[in-house]
Write a structure and sequence with these properties.
Blueprint (H helix, E strand, L loop, with lengths): L1 E5 L2 E7 L5 H8 L4 E4 L3 H12 L4 E4 L4 H8 L8 E2 L2 H7 L2 E4 L3 H14 L5 E4 L3 H4 L1 H4 L8 E7 L3 H9 L4 E9 L5 H11 L2 E6 L2 H13 L4 H16 L4 H23 L1 H6 L3 H31 L1 H10 L4 H14 L1 H10 L7 H18 L3 H6 L13
Parallel strand pairs: 3-4, 3-6, 4-5, 6-7, 7-8, 9-10
Antiparallel strand pairs: 1-2, 2-10, 8-9
Length: about 400
């Protein structure tokens, strides 16, 4: 464990080495984990749990996700169930990983089949914090815990296979058995977390919903579109506008920021880029703060969650969603983006063969025991100089 103090707030982080394979086995050996839902998060967590030796079953309705689960090696009637109720009855831990609207719609089934002493596990605080909207009120005789990976299920799985680990938060809402915290921590490591920060269900959902609508997706896409449109209006070609808006950011600068921090980026770019970025960031900050104030209040008040639940519960939601996604795909910025991405050397035929070999090797290594995953070491990367 590591403890640090920033801004007058002391925090403790739990590292993967704090929960060695022997401790993982001790805590989880008698558990049966039912993963309800096989979207990106359900799939990533279920596969990691299985590879870590945790007794795991999956419940998902018939369809594409069910067939995907079968192709991943889950066996119908043994480790794969189309009947949610049956899976819940078999479980000592129920990972409730349906969409928020799906959790609301299926809660009666979950509630009726939970076993006394089971752990009801979430990866998002939405249903519990906004229970007045979702109706998700757990019985008093179960643990209620949360492990929230800071990334998509695809990333959870990929980092696990690479012998790394995703950043995640965890929380305990209800401790019936007296083991809720140790269960949450052990499950967090077992699903692929490299380190865990403690939070509450409420803080997780408020920060997560703000982040998704803000810097993680909504705001960043809005900024990308705005800059791209201005560059195109001023006569720049689609490729040039895309390269200066998206490609350089995602392929060069963002990875370096993730690796070393924005302070390092400012100290390792050209003086022209440095001066301009330092001056203009203040203008963007001043323009954005009122929008983020409005966003956080909409989330905190429950108005945003009510709006989302109402929209996602409409009978024609998926049909309308496909129209919206088609508009995004048809946006010029992503049309040129597809062309530029396919020009990357690793996407050319020779590059694909090399990537396939690397992926196959990574997958084989990722299916090793949790002990091997814990001991896996990556060679430290040399800190590259930013182009800017």
């Amino acid at each position: 464990m590591k403890t640090f103090t920033i801004g007058g707030v002391e925090e403790t982080v739990i590292e993967r080495t704090d929960v060695p394979p022997s401790e993982l086995k001790k805590v989880l050996s008698k558990e049966t984990v039912a993963v309800i839902g096989y979207g990106t998060q359900g799939r990533g967590q279920a596969l990691n749990l299985r590879d870590n030796g945790v007794r795991t079953i999956v419940a998902v309705r018939p369809g594409k996700s069910f067939e995907l689960a079968k192709s991943d090696g889950w066996v119908p009637g043994k480790t794969l169930f189309s009947d949610i109720a049956e899976a819940v009855r078999k479980a000592t831990v129920v990972e409730y990983l349906l969409s928020d609207a799906g959790q609301k719609a299926n809660w009666a089934t979950i509630r009726a089949n939970l076993q006394e002493g089971a752990a009801l596990y979430f990866s998002h605080g939405f249903s519990i914090v906004f229970r007045d909207q979702t109706g998700v009120v757990p019985p008093a005789n179960v643990d209620v815990i949360l492990v929230a990976p800071k990334g998509s299920g695809t990333t959870v799985r990929r980092l696990f296979l690479e012998g790394r680990g995703i950043n995640a938060s965890f929380a305990v809402e209800q401790d019936y058995t007296g083991r809720a915290r140790e269960r949450a921590v052990a499950l967090g490591i077992a699903i692929g977390a490299g380190y865990l920060f403690e939070t509450s269900f409420r803080n997780e959902v408020l920060s997560d919903l703000t982040g998704e609508r803000g810097v993680l997706m909504g705001a960043i896409y809005g900024l990308m579109r705005a800059q791209y449109q201005i560059l195109r209006k001023m006569g720049h070609t689609p490729s040039e506008a895309f390269n200066e808006t998206v490609e350089e950011a995602t392929q060069s600068l963002y990875p370096l920021i993730g690796e070393n921090g924005m302070d390092w980026m400012y100290a390792n770019c050209s003086t022209t880029a440095q001066r301009g970025a330092l001056d203009w960031c203040k203008k963007f900050e001043e323009a954005a703060i009122p929008v983020f104030d409005e966003l956080y209040e909409e989330v905190r008040s429950g108005r945003e969650t009510a709006r989302v639940l109402e929209a996602n519960s409409r009978p024609d939601y998926h049909q309308q969603l496909q129209k919206e996604l088609a508009e995004v795909r048809g946006d010029e910025i992503w049309q040129i983006g597809a062309i530029v991405r396919n020009l990357r050397p690793e996407r050319l035929p020779s590059g694909k063969k090399a990537a396939a070999k690397a992926t196959a090797k990574s997958s084989r290594n990722g299916k090793a025991s949790h002990r091997k995953v814990v001991k896996a070491k990556l060679k430290p990367k040399k800190k590259a100089k930013a182009r800017r």
